[in-house]
C-alpha cells in the first residue's frame, strides 16, 4: 500500500503516527513549510497519489485530515489505536470507549491517537509546497498561560479542582508545579468559574496529558476529567473525601485538606533541596 504520512518537524506525535503508517505499507513522510493554512495544506495533501493518508491525532492533524476528507468526500477515522487487516480500533467518547470499525474509502484517511504507538525512527522528510489559495492562515500562536512547560508535554502536572476554592488559592498549586518543574492543570469547574484559562483544563473537553506524575488536588474524578488524566503513568490524589471517585484511578492518595497538604509537600521539597 502506498501510504502518505503528514509529519511536523520535531514532533513526537508525528513520529508515533509514522509507526502506524509504516504498519500499513511503505510510508512517505511529508511536511509542509510556512504558515499553517488548513484549507491550502489539505488541498496539497489531497492532490498526492496515495492509498492512505495518515497524520497524528493532534489538534492540527485532526483538523487537517478533516479538511482533506471534506475535499475528497471520503470518510475519516480519527484517533486510531490499531489496525488489523481492514478493521481498525479507535478511541471514542473521550477515551471511555474503544470502537472497532471498518473504514471504507479511497484513500483511507486516519489519524493516530496520541501515545498509543512508539515513536518511529526518524526518517527523511519530504517538504511539499502549499498552493496558497488565499484561504485563512495562522500567522501567530499566542499561549494564554504565558509560556513555560506545556500541559500536553509536561512530565509532571499539578492540577486543582473546586476544592482549591479561588483563583488566588491556585498560588499553592503553582508553587508545587514550579518546584517539580511541571505544568499547572485544572478541572472544568475551575475554568467555568474563571479561576484559570481553558488552556489549563484537563479532560475530555480539555487537554489529554501523558505526564509521568499527575497530582490531582481537590478534584472529585468525574469520568470527563479522568478521560484527560488517565494517560499519566502515576496519579496522586489529594482529597478531603475518602470516598471521592478519583481514588479509584489513583496510585497514591493523601486524604486531607489540600490547603495544608500541598504547602507541606512544597516545604518538604524545599527542605530536601536546601532551598
Ligand atoms: C460534556 C462534558 C464534558 C466535560 N469535560 C470536562 C473536562 O474536560 N474536564 C473536567 O475536569 N471536567 C469536565 N466536565 C465536568 C465534570 O463532569 C465535573 O463536573 C468536573 O470535573 C468536576 O470538577 P471538580 O472535580 O473540580 O469539582 P467537584 O466534582 O465539585 O469536586 C471537588 C472535589 O474537591 C474535594 N475537596 C473540596 N475541598 C477540599 C479541600 N479543602 N481539600 C481537598 N479536597 C477538597 C471534594 O472532596 C471533591 O472531591 C465535563 C462535563 C460534561 C457534561
List the helices and strands and how they pair.
Layout lengths: L1 E5 L5 H13 L1 E7 L5 H9 L5 E5 L2 H14 L4 E8 L2 E6 L4 E6 L5 E5 L13 E3 L27 E5 L10 H9 L3 E4 L1 H5 L20 E5 L5 H7 L4 E6 L6 H4 L2 E4 L2 H16 L2
Parallel strand pairs: 1-2, 1-3, 2-8, 3-7, 4-7, 9-10, 9-11, 11-12, 12-13
Antiparallel strand pairs: 4-5, 5-6
Helix pairs in contact: 2-3, 4-8
Bound molecules: flavin-adenine dinucleotide (FAD).
List its traits.
275 residues; alpha/beta; eight-stranded mixed sheet; 8 helices; 13 strands; 28% helix; binds flavin-adenine dinucleotide
Structural write-up:
The chain is built from 8 helices and 13 strands. The protein has 275 residues and is an alpha/beta fold. It has an 8-stranded mixed sheet with strand order 6-5-4-7-3-1-2-8, with helices on both faces. A 5-stranded parallel sheet has the order 10-9-11-12-13. The protein is elongated. Bound molecules: flavin-adenine dinucleotide. Residues 161-163, 187-189, 201-206, 218-220, 222, 224-225, 228, 238-241, 244, 257-259 line the site of flavin-adenine dinucleotide (FAD).
